[in-house]
Amino acid sequence: MAKLNLNEVFDKDVVIENPNLMLGKGLMMPFNGSNSGSRKLMFGTHLEQRLPLCKPDVPYIQTGYEKQFGEYSSSFITAKHDYEIFDKIFKYDFNPNFQYYLIAVDHEDKVITVFEKKAYKHVTESYGYTFSNNGAINYAEPGTVISKGTTIIKSQAFDEYENRMDGKNFLTMYTACEETMEDAIVISESAAKSLASPLIKKVTVQVNDNEIPLNLYGDDGNYKIFPDIGEEIKNSILCGMRVEKKEESLYSLSYNRLRELMISDERYTVSGKVVDIDVFCNAPDRFIDNPYYGQIHKYYQGQMSMYQRIVDAVEVGLADELKNGYKLDYEMQKLYSRAKGAINGQQYFTNGKAFSNMVIEITVIDEVPVLRGDKITNRYGGKGVVSRIRPDAEMPMTNDGKHVDVLLNLCGVVGRMNAGQLFEQSISFICMKLVEFFRTEVLDVGQCLDMYLNLIKIVSPSMYEEVATLIDNMSDEGLASAYIQSIMDDDSIYLAIEPMTENMTMDKLEQLYEEFPFIKMEKVLMPIFDSKNELRYVPSRRPIMYGYLYFYRLKQYAEEKFSVTSLSSTNIKNENTRNKASNNYRAMYARTPIRFGDMEFGNLCHMGADLASQILMIYSSSPLARQLCEQLETDDPFNIDVKLDMDSKNRNAEILNVYLKTKGLRLVFKKHLKKKKVAAVEMPVAYYDPIQYIPAIFYGPGEKENVDIDKIIQDLKDSVNKPKHPAVFFPAEFFDEIHLDEVKEDSAE
Fold first, then answer.
1. What is the pLDDT of residues 334-346, one digit of tens each?
2. Under CATH, which number does the domain 197-282+347-368 receive?
3. How far is the C-alpha of 732 from the C-alpha of 679, rounded, in Å?
4. Domain limits, the chain
5. pLDDT tens digits for 665-691?
6. If you classify domain 20-64+168-194+377-443+492-529 with CATH, what class do you get?
7. Is the full-model pTM beyond 0.90?
8. b vs e for 248-274, b when ≥16 Cβ sit within 10 Å of the residue's Cβ?
9. Which residues make beta-bridge pairs with 121?
10. What SS3 class is residue 532?
11. Sheet containing strand 725-729, strands side by side
C-alpha cells in the first residue's frame, strides 16, 4: 500500500464552488458572517423549535434559500410523476369537501397511491400545522391527470412562489427599560395576535356502558352531544358525561337536566374549532333505538361507508391493475388495511384492553396568540421571554404614524455577539424611507427604478444582475410603473442577500447612507402618562434607529405550565402524584405539583425550607450574594460585613448602573458604617452569707487580652470566708458605645 503524502494534499488548492452550502441550516440566517458561532448553533436549534403560524410573512431580508428549504419540507407535496385520479372518496357525505381521499395511479412506476385532503396535520404533542387552499388536491376529480411537478398540497408556510415562511416581520426598536431587562421582550397586542399558532388537540372521549352523554349542543328536536365538524366549542366545554344511577334517574335523567352540567358530571374542557371526528365502536348494536347516540351514529355510519368504498376501490375497481403488476404504496396499504379491519369488525383497544362500548376521538384546532411568558426569537439566536404585551397605542410611534411592534434590549446584541440583526434593522430602515420617498411622487418612474437598482447593487450584487435584466426587458412604461407600485404597496423592499458571499459590513452601510443622503435617523415619539393619567407622546431625546426584524415563535406555551397544586391527588403515603386529568382534557389546568430539581431537593433535605428558599432567591440573582451564602455555611455568620461600592459584583447593581448610564447618570454608593459593638461586660459572680456581691469588669476592643480573669476570680474567693457556692463565670454581654455608659452608671449605683 502506497504511503499518503500529506504535504502534497495540503499544497493543493481546495476550491469550494458554493461556500454557502457549508452553513446547513445557517442558510436561513442573513448576514451569517456577523454572528458568533454559538449563536449560529442556537439558531439551528430554534429552527427545530419554531411553531408554524396561522398567517406568516415572507421576510423582507431573505437569504435566497427559502424556496430550497420549502422543497424538502414534508408539508409541501408535489407530484413526482404523472398521476391519474381513479376515485375521490369523501370521509363524510354530509360534509363532502371538508375531508376526502384521492386514489391516484402512477402508470410509469405501476404504483397506486393516495392523497388525503384535510384541514390539518398533527405532528407531535399538541403541535402541528394547517394547509392552504391552492393545491391540485382542491380541484382534482376522477379521470383527471395531475402532471409531474404540480403542487398537490402545501401548508400555510409557503407563499405563491413556494418560498418558506415561518415568522412575521415586526417593526423593532432597541430600548432600555425595566420590561426589557435580561432576555425580556415587549410586544404589542397586534403583534401578539399575528403570532397566533395552531394548537391541535386530540381529545379521546370514552363512552362507558353506564354513562349517558349530555345534550349540551342540541335542542328539543336534536340530541347533540358535541359540536359538528367546523363548529366552535362553547365556553370551553366540548362534551359531558353523566353516570346513570337508578335511584336518581327521575331527577338526573330528565330531558331538561340532560342539557345542563351537574357538579358530579365528567366534562371535557378544551377551546377551539372541531376539525375531525373519528368513532371507534366495539358494540355497533348499541346504536339501535338509543336516543342518546344519534349524532355518534351519524359519524359512525359515514366512516363505515367510506371504508367500504375504499375496500371496493382496491378489490374491485383496481383489480385489473393489481393483476397486471401494480402495487399499493405504503400510505395506500395503511389506508386499505384500516378500512378492511373496520369492515371485518375488528376490536379496538385502550391501554391494552378492548373497551366494551365506544371511543370518540375529536380533533380540535385552537389559534392561540402569544401570551406573557411565551418565547419568541429572531434569526440570530436572540430568543427572549415576552414580559409584557402592551396595547398598540402604548408602544413608541414613528413620525409617519407607525407603532413599533417589538422592544428589545441592546445589551442582548453586545453580549451575544450577533450583530447581524442590527444590519437587518438598518437596511430595512433605509428601505422603509426609500419607499416613503417613492410615495411622495417627487420622482418619475425611471428615477425610482435607478434608486432601487442602486440600493440592490450595494447590498446584493447577485440580485442586482437579475433585477437589472428584468427591468431592461420592460419595454412598456406601464409595466415599469406597475413594478414600482408593487414596491410601494409594501412597507419595505424585499431583498435577497446571500449569507456568506454577500456579507454586510460597516463600509457598505456607510455607502448606503452616502448614496441616499436624505435618509437619516429620526426621533421617535415615546408614550408617557401625564399627571392626569392621560396618554401623550413625547419626542425622544436623541434619534433612534428602528426597522423590521423577522421573528419566530418557539415551542413554549406558558399557559400549559399552569398548575393547581391544591387539587393534586395523593397516594396512600399522602404524597403528591402525577395527575393526567389535564392531558386527557378533563381539567382546565394541570394538578401535578411543580417538581424540584435534584440540587433543590438536596438543599431542602439538609437545610430546611426557610434557608433553602432564601438561598434560592439570593443565589440566583447576585454574584456577591453567592459569596455571602458560602460564608453563611463556612464562616462566622455573625461577622459578615456587606461592602457595596462601585466595584461591587452585585448583579442587580450592575444592571441598574448600566441603565442609568444610558440616561447620562451614574450610580453613586454611600457607605453607612455598621454599628460595631465596641465594649463588653463579663460578670464573675460569687454567692455569700448573708449578702451577694457582683463585681463587673469593663474593657473595650483589644483589652481583653490584658485582663487576667482567673486572678480576679481567685482574689474574689480569697476575700470571702466560706463561700456558700463557688464563683460562676457568665457569658459575655455586648454593648455599643451609647449603651455602655448606661451600663457603667447602673453598675456604679
1. 999 999 999 998 8
2. 2.40.50
3. 10
4. 20-64+168-194+377-443+492-529, 74-156+295-333, 197-282+347-368, 562-595, 679-748
5. 776 666 555 554 444 444 444 444 444
6. mainly beta
7. no
8. eeeebeeeebbeeeeeebbbbbbbbbb
9. 129
10. coil
11. 692-693, 684-687, 725-729
